[in-house]
Design a protein that fits this description.
- With 262 residues, the chain is an alpha+beta fold.
- It is built from 8 helices and 8 strands; from the N terminus they run αααββαβββαααβββα.
- The strands form 2 sheets. Strands 5-4-3-8-7-6 form a 6-stranded antiparallel beta sheet, with helices on both faces. A two-stranded antiparallel sheet has the order 1-2.
- A hairpin with a 2-residue loop joins strand 3 and strand 4.
- The longest helix has 30 residues.
Length: 262
């Protein structure tokens, strides 16, 4: 006999989605009374839920007309869900090839606000290698993948992130100022790869490069990470070029037309 699934009823959640669905049919927005008339719900409840949706960045309210309209956050969430699945699918074989060349662990992740989330990894072949938890979050200002992504963001978006970062000093190599971060990002744009000089975790290095979608937006980063003792500093530029070339291959699979690496 099949077990009947319990039915959970969360009225506020349902109303929230109904408000979002209503607004999807009114791109210019609706005032609260129009929303409550359409949904047949109390004004007080709709107001509280609409304010919660605004706090989450899902809707925005015009201070003059009082019209509430959707932001593009839901679109971004949906696109990211599709992109992440396609991203990993298109990346694993390239990541394996990169791992075979550099021997250390290769990871791929995406940015969410001021953090990078690890999506997948190919474990290194050395006796002692770096292993990360999938879903682990890394700050953008002190990590190779984070810096690789934000370096190539549109200027306004990049500056918004820089101005909102809470700098934490983990050691003497950690970047702790906006000026220092901007200088590092400029070098990343010039070289095409980023370097984490044990800025958060002692003895661990990371070298990363951005992955672009068909529009040229940095949707992800690929990076190699391992023990600093296993690499020579003079070889960092060569490793950076290798990582950049493999990231470019993934970008091409996502439809981005990239310049040929030197």
């Amino acid at each position: 006999m099949a077990t009947k699934k319990p039915k959970y009823d969360v009225p506020s959640l349902k109303t929230g989605f109904q408000i979002l669905e209503h607004l999807s049919h009114h791109p210019r927005g609706s005032v609260l009374t129009e929303i409550t008339d359409s949904l047949k719900c109390p004004v007080s409840s709709a107001y509280r839920i609409a304010m919660a949706l605004e706090d989450m960045g899902l809707v925005v309210r015009d201070p003059e007309t009082k019209q509430i309209r959707l932001t593009n956050k839901l679109l971004q969430i949906g696109q990211r869900g599709i992109t992440e699945a396609n991203l990993v699918e298109h990346s694993l074989d390239v990541m394996r090839e990169l791992r075979n060349k550099v021997e250390d662990t290769v990871l791929i992740g995406v940015r969410e606000d001021k953090e990078v989330i690890v999506l997948d990894e190919i474990i290194g072949t050395r006796m002692f290698c770096f292993i990360s938890k999938l879903g682990y979050r890394i700050g953008v200002s002190c990590s190779a993948p984070g810096k690789a992504i934000i370096a190539f963001l549109p200027k306004n978006e990049r500056e918004d992130i820089i101005n909102s970062v809470k700098f934490i000093r983990y050691n003497e190599r950690t970047i702790t100022t906006k000026t220092g971060l901007r200088k590092d990002l400029a070098g990343i744009v010039k070289n095409g790869y980023s370097f984490d000089d044990s800025e958060q975790f002692e003895g661990i290095y990371c070298i990363g490069a951005p992955v672009f979608d068909r529009s040229g937006y940095p949707v992800s980063a690929v990076w190699v990470t391992g023990l600093m003792m296993n690499i020579k500093r003079k070889n960092i530029p060569d490793i950076g070029k290798i990582v950049r070339a493999h990231a470019s291959r993934i970008s091409a699979r996502l439809g981005y037309v990239t310049k040929k690496d030197n």
